[in-house]
Amino acid sequence: MIVITGATGSIGRALVRRLRGEEVTAVVRTPADLGCRYVLGDFERPETIGKVLSPGDRLFLNSSLWPGFVTAHRAVIDLAREAGVAQIVTVSVRDAAPGQPLGGGPHGEVDEYLRASGIPWSILQPVGFMQNLLGGIRDDLIHGSYGPGGVGYIDTRDIADVAAALLTRPVGESRNHILTGTAAPTHDELAAEASAALGRTIRYVDLPIPEMAAHLERHGMSADFAGELARGMARVGDGRWSSTTSEVQDITGHPPRSLADFLADHAAEFERGPK
Ligand SMILES: NC(=O)c1ccc[n+]([C@@H]2O[C@H](COP(=O)([O-])OP(=O)(O)OC[C@H]3O[C@@H](n4cnc5c(N)ncnc54)[C@H](OP(=O)(O)O)[C@@H]3O)[C@@H](O)[C@H]2O)c1
Fold this sequence. Notes:
With 275 residues, this protein is α/β, with parallel strands linked by helices. It is 40% helix and 15% strand. 41% of the residues are buried.
């Protein structure tokens, strides 16, 4: 059995589709029409996920972040070990390590715990998601503090494809997989590519950290998180996420979807035009 947590998320939904025909159980917080068997479970009550697990199961461990993330994910790893789970594939982030800002810190703590758990593991370490663009282009503008730093944005469908391959082949070597798209455009290049694909001018506006934080706050983010996110963008400006890897191709046998593919597939969602 392949047990999928975070099954209603952007990676989880693509993974469920990709695993059609396999024996799959999705863990969801509220009933969801995913086209597969599901059980109700919540990381805030780890036992609701633990009770789903049986010896030999393969577990996709994933959820969004919240303050209880580390405790809850560690508890589910303990329950998976007790249940005799054969493998855990999890989603982390590139450069995750304890003490890192944003998601890097909590993911780093869970990653370390998983590596020491004795359960065979695969840690997927993607950079930014192309899907972020769906909310990130407003009034034909993309705001950020990335400066000239490129980002190898990846489509979450490729992360799902990697997870599906790792969860269905014989359990292999436990290791980290840094996942990127085919290219790592700067945000000016990304805006130019979006303009060409969508047939209207999209512009990248690079803002100093305080102004970016204020911009995010105006769009409903808490002051603390807005500041942290703006500082995180500026760190990426040093080019740390501007290299690409061949992991998607190596594991799935197909190249990652390009930004042009992503924009074409989501053209209807971007068809808002300037206000
Ligand atoms: N966005 C990025 O650019 C980026 C980059 C690198 C890494 N990541 C990592 O990617 C992961 C998330 O990706 P995603 O595609 O799954 O995100 P997503 O589309 O936001 O989905 C999050 C999933 O987690 C589930 N969830 C949240 N809290 C839960 C809880 N307490 N119990 C059970 N399920 C819970 C949600 O369920 P509901 O439907 O019930 O809410 C949903 O299925 C995070 O670990 C994030 O740090 C993100």
